[in-house]
Amino acid sequence: MKKALSLLLVAAMALMLVACGGSSSSTPAASGSTAASGSAEAPTGQTLKVMLSEEPSSGDSFTTTLNKWAEETGNSVELMVIPYDDQLTKFPLMAKNKDLPDLVSTTRLSRLYPDEFVDLGQVVDTSIFEPMALEIISQEYNSDKLSCLPLQFTITNVFYNKDAFEAAGLEVPTVDDRWTMDEVYEAAAKLMADGGVKYGMAVDFSRARYDNLMYMNGGSMVEKDGDSFKVAINSQANIDTLQTFVDKNNEGIMPKAIWAGGSTDNPGDYFKNGDVGMYFSGSWNYNAFTTDITGFEWGVMPSPVGSVSGSAILGGSGLAVPENSANKDLALSFIKWFYEEENFSYYLDLDKGLSSLTGVTYQPADEKAAADYTVLQAEVGQTTTLFSVDESSMWRNYLDNEYRDALKQAVNGDMTAEEALNDFAAALAEKSGWAQ
Predict the structure, then answer these.
(1) In this model, does residue 27 exceed pLDDT 70?
(2) Same structural domain for residues 85 and 198?
(3) Which end of the chain has the least Cβ crowding within 10 Å, N or C?
(4) Does the pLDDT of residue 231 top 90, yes or no?
(5) Looking at residue 268, what is its pLDDT?
(6) Looking at the 3D structure of the chain, how many domains does it have?
(7) CB count, 10 Å around CB of 90?
(8) Nearest-CA neighbor of 119 among 138, 137, 106?
(9) Which H or E element spans position 404?
(10) 109 by DSSP, 3-state: which?
């Protein structure tokens, strides 16, 4: 997934790192600095080697926080740039050659190679974290081990056109009183009739955005089946959900061409142009909208609930410490320092993103932004265990884009909703070896 509000991850500057094929730089600690509270016993005069995936922007939040730690503790930081795809092949070689970084910012290495990483659940009090951020980002699904701890995450959400809502006489739902999907569809029709928009709503052409509709109605990709899984994507609840989605596209409430494959347009552009009343997307768009939307007032509304629950999909990155790194103790010292409330708040104020710690949030000075962030942070509580089980199955290792293609075939009328999901379920069962 994409990064919320301050781009993706971080990385370093210049110089080729011969052993890894990446780049590195070193940030010296300031002389005469003192250790932060809680880090007085931290090692000093050492170099923390950190592996990240992209070049940092100026004033990058994480690298700035790393430098703050270095200055306070009398250590230095060496940053390595290795793109994600390259990490998959290079990290095993680094482990084999005992040439590991001390700290890794990652979305997947800790799950692919859990034995190579420290169990950070034994290092930090995990009760400080948002439970679903910890479960989705950190959990090693085959054990209770936490091979990484959450750094940042994004969340799916709904943006809305305030001017269109006012023109249509609609009151925005609240976190404590969310709309149902039926109410969303009713509001979408009213926005088209009285709000001056072309489409009442739009949904990103993304299986993850569609899947929120599925989870709201109690559906899922798979179900637990003992120590394995059972394919559940073609359940009657899921067929009904897809059929409703097809019907609403056919009614013109949404721009059908997006999901029928007749256009490569980005529905986000439709929203920015004022053509859409409600836009189902994610928090990663917030900064861009703040800059790009000048023709109307907009905001973030709470996501709706379906027949069973609400739903939001969370994704992000975490920090991990290789078990056999040269300066493992130094990395663990940084981990403890980073997740202290004062230090994490410093990082969060720079990052302007969503918080992985309970009770610690980014609080913008702007009143509108503060209200929007309150809604965004509340979306974390909508993440369902159904999504967590689906993630634990790692079904995308077998099929991925084929799922969205099946949804598209139903929307464009090539297949019925039932046929599309039955065909995909059979293909997933065959590839995975799971029962149906």
Answers:
(1) no
(2) no
(3) C
(4) yes
(5) 96
(6) 2
(7) 17
(8) 138
(9) helix 401-411
(10) helix
CA distance 50 to 24: 9
Same domain, 169 and 274: yes
3-state secondary structure of 208: helix
If 0-12 CB within 10 Å is exposed, 13-18 middle and 19+ buried, where does residue 311 land? buried
Cα radius of gyration rounded to whole Å, the chain: 23
Same domain, 168 and 149: no
Among 14-28, 160-174, 348-362, which stretch is predicted with the lowest mean pLDDT?
A: 14-28
Check if the beta carbon of residue 153 is closer than 8 Å to that of residue 354: yes
* Residue 13 within a domain: no
Domain co-membership, 273 together with 419: yes
In a domain, residue 301? The reply is: yes
Q: Of 376, 396, 421, which marks where a domain is finished?
A: 376
Nearest to 421, CA basis, from 233, 240, 260, 244: 233
Asked if residue 230 and residue 164 are part of one domain, the reply reads yes
CATH number at residue 79: 3.40.190.10
Query: pLDDT tens-digit profile of 324-381?
Result: 999 999 999 999 999 999 999 999 999 999 999 999 999 899 999 999 999 999 999 9
Task: Kindly indicate the confidence band of residue 36, based on its pLDDT and cuts at 50, 70 and 90.
Answer: very low
pLDDT at 7: 37
Which among 10, 313, 318 is positioned nearest to 139, based on CA atoms?
Answer: 318
Query: Do 325 and 277 share a domain, yes or no?
Result: no
Helix (H, G, I), strand (E, B), or coil: what is residue 13?
coil
